[in-house]
Sequence to fold (163 residues):
Amino acid sequence: MKFAQLTDLAAAAHALVARSQKAPSNTNPEKAGGYLVIGSEGFEERYILKIGNCPAEKDNKYRNFAQEKAHRLFSDWLRDPSSISSWQTREPNLNRWGGAVLFPIIGERGPSCDIISFSGLIEPADEALGLMLGYQFKLATDPKFAERVIDISANKVYREMMQ
Fold:
């Protein structure tokens, strides 16, 4: 991923944070930022970006959660290629949250994936942001993929952000 793409991705993520704040089912619209983790080509490349306004006392927490979601989802996918959402292994009592989406790739070198994970908003908004970025940046093109992801999490915020 080139720097220009990362800059575009960060700008798009910032706009989506603002959009998520207006979603009627967003139970905590004052949350205005967090951390975005992008894992490209099965984590051959990894980027961590701070997006929007994240309270200083939550900085490490959100960065760590965004990374944990992404790594957990990648590990889940290695064991089970049908894994596409961190909601599939969500366990709040173990601080394992939803908010990461895996976009499968069938390439010349065999199967791989890209992952987008966000932490700092409410869980459905974290997931919606990642899923919407995946479509904006052509990691997903099939509209049925989004339906599969949001069926797992029962994500109302995603549907509202799409309107």
About this structure: Residues 3-162 form a domain with the Beta-Lactamase fold (CATH 3.30.450). The radius of gyration is 14 Å. The helical segments are 3-21, 59-79, 123-136, 143-153, 156-162. Residues 22 and 88 are 26 Å apart (CA to CA).
